[in-house]
Specification:
heterodimer, A: 352 residues, alpha+beta, Uridine Diphospho-n-acetylenolpyruvylglucosamine Reductase, domain 2, Enolase-like, domain 1, 5-stranded antiparallel beta sheet, 4-stranded antiparallel beta sheet, globular, B: 165 residues, Ubiquitin-like (UB roll), DNA polymerase, domain 1, 2 domains, 5-stranded mixed beta sheet, 5 helices
């Protein structure tokens, strides 16, 4: 780990001023950043410790019904917040499908949004990686790339965004509250992360010094609470990043879908909202035929970035499974293995 | 530059001088305070051997900078027994052979104490396995670990004061 200066500002304006300096980085829990620093991937000159800033750890319902979650709320505390989990069950399920209990106890909401890719070539400083060293090339192309992107990738980078939380947030139109040198602003979660294009070293649209202070879930998103699921396929039962994942939320009017919200994870450098698929479901019956049509639309643009064509079929099936589970209804209690596509769920309709 | 922080470690107020902000809680415990019960496995948040409780919650001490924990209460494996009386989770691990080589055991026990405080399993073995998934055991003592955690949970439910960590 490189040497760095450590500062602990007492206020948000002081933190923003300190983090605007060259080479500065915010420190929340550090569950990703400290790991990156140990590997020599991140080498900040200054760590601006925001973990003790006041006013960033609340979960509150605003006058308009939106729910506002402070950036320092721990992943576990949000997932187990009874009112939040009741209104946004797919978000709670996504959170509990990520990492381990120890990491969820530490990791913050804001940090989850800005975690870096887990592409092995990004982590290996002996490998070429345009995200880590601009212009150095991409050893994932032609390398071990069966886990890599199938949507939105470029010749410069085929990494994926590792967050589960962001997938559910993208589906439900979450908004990110940012403060920074240019003043406060709102960013739609689906616009926060950038696809690699020719500049894969830029992960998101925040500027130096910008600080995520909260996220908001719109009141309207709670209309999907009765039919919301997250499904995540991993290469081991638990404590692994997604091979592919999907958040599906339905607003049902009897035998008809009034509205749908869909997003895929593990497929691109950002959580992949599938609006064309959502549109196909409006007015349709909540059955497997409709879900398969929607999943075809969601993956229509997908193409392999290496030895990962199987992920296209897999993503399609995981999205169908998430929709089947959403249609069956949000369980009163999450299963023992949250989001596991293999876990039996009491009362689930078996569509074969 | 040296910073002074105050921690409560295993119930004792412990002022600590931090002469390098790179020191993780794990390295502080092991290398500076000589509390070597907490193990360094991967040092990257992947194995759980370094699990301790901070303010009552289980975390990976390898990924926490000590300097950021000013004012925190830390509980390690050295602080869970009451004198010669083992903690109920320690007793359960012995009774159920919840280990072989023992390297992961302090982390497993601290994780189990945290799990019991979180109260999310309802005695369901599947939930215990999932919620202990942040602790790897290369010897594969998982069956004994699960049985031990289930027994300790039952003991804690029967005698809530005994689980006080």
């Amino acid at each position: 780990m490189n040497r760095f200066d450590y500062v602990r500002p007492a206020t948000i304006p002081a933190a923003i001023a300190a983090a605007g300096a060259e080479g500065a980085a915010y420190l929340g829990a550090g569950t990703n950043l400290i790991d990156l620093m140990k590997g020599g991937i991140a080498r900040p000159a200054t760590l601006v410790d925001i973990a003790h800033l006041p006013g960033l750890d609340g979960i509150e319902t605003l006058a308009n019904g939106d729910v506002r979650v402070g950036a320092l709320v721990r992943n576990a505390d949000l997932a187990h917040h009874a009112d939040f989990a009741r209104r946004f069950p797919a978000v709670a399920e996504a959170l509990l499908a990520g990492a381990s209990p120890q990491l969820r106890n530490a990791a913050t909401v804001g940090g989850n949004l800005l975690q870096r890719t887990r592409c092995r070539y990004f982590y290996d400083t002996a490998s070429a990686c345009n995200k880590r060293v601009p212009g150095s090339g991409c050893d994932a192309r032609g390398g071990e790339n069966r886990l890599h992107a199938i949507l939105g990738w470029s010749d410069a980078c085929i990494a994926t965004n590792p967050s589960d939380f962001c997938v559910a947030l993208a589906a439900l139109d979450a908004v990110v509250e940012v403060d920074g040198p240019a003043g406060p602003r709102d960013v739609a979660l689906v616009d926060l992360h950038r696809l690699p294009g020719d500049t894969p070293w830029i992960d998101h649209q925040l500027a130096p010094g910008d600080l995520i202070v909260a996220i908001r879930l719109p009141a309207a998103a709670a209309a999907f609470a009765a039919h919301s699921r997250y499904v995540k396929l991993r290469e081991r039962t638990s404590y692994a990043f997604a091979l592919v994942s999907a958040a599906a939320a339905l607003d049902l009017d009897g035998g008809t879908i009034r509205a749908a919200r869909l997003a895929l994870g593990g497929v691109a450098m950002k959580p992949w909202r599938a609006t064309a698929a959502e549109a196909l479901l409006v007015g349709a019956a909540p059955d497997v035929a409709s879900f398969e049509r929607a999943a075809d639309a969601a993956l229509a643009e997908a193409r392999p970035s290496g030895a990962n064509a199987f992920k296209i079929a897999l993503a399609r099936r995981i999205l169908v499974r998430a929709l089947v589970r959403a249609a069956a209804g949000t369980p009163a209690r999450l299963p023992a293995l949250p989001a596991s596509p293999l876990a039996p769920v009491a009362g689930e309709i078996d569509h074969g | 530059m040296t910073s002074s922080i105050n921690l409560t470690i295993n119930h004792a107020h412990t002022p600590v001088e931090i002469d390098d902000p790179r020191i993780t809680l794990l390295d502080l415990l092991r290398e500076r305070l000589h509390l070597t019960g907490t193990k360094k496995g991967c040092d990257r948040g992947q194995c759980g051997a370094c699990t301790v409780l901070v303010d009552g919650r289980r975390i990976n001490s390898c990924l926490a900078l000590a300097i950021s924990l000013d004012g925190a209460e830390v509980l390690t494996i050295e602080g869970v027994a009451a004198g010669d009386t083992l903690h109920p989770v320690q007793r359960a691990f012995i009774e159920h052979d919840g280990f072989q080589c023992g390297f992961c055991t302090p982390g497993q026990i601290m994780s189990a104490i945290g799990l019991i405080a979180e109260a999310q399993t309802d005695g369901d073995p599947d939930r215990v396995r999932e919620q202990m998934s942040g602790n790897l055991c290369r010897c594969g003592a998982y069956a004994g670990i699960t049985a031990a955690v289930l027994q300790a949970e039952r003991a804690a439910a029967a005698a809530p004061q005994e689980q006080a960590a």
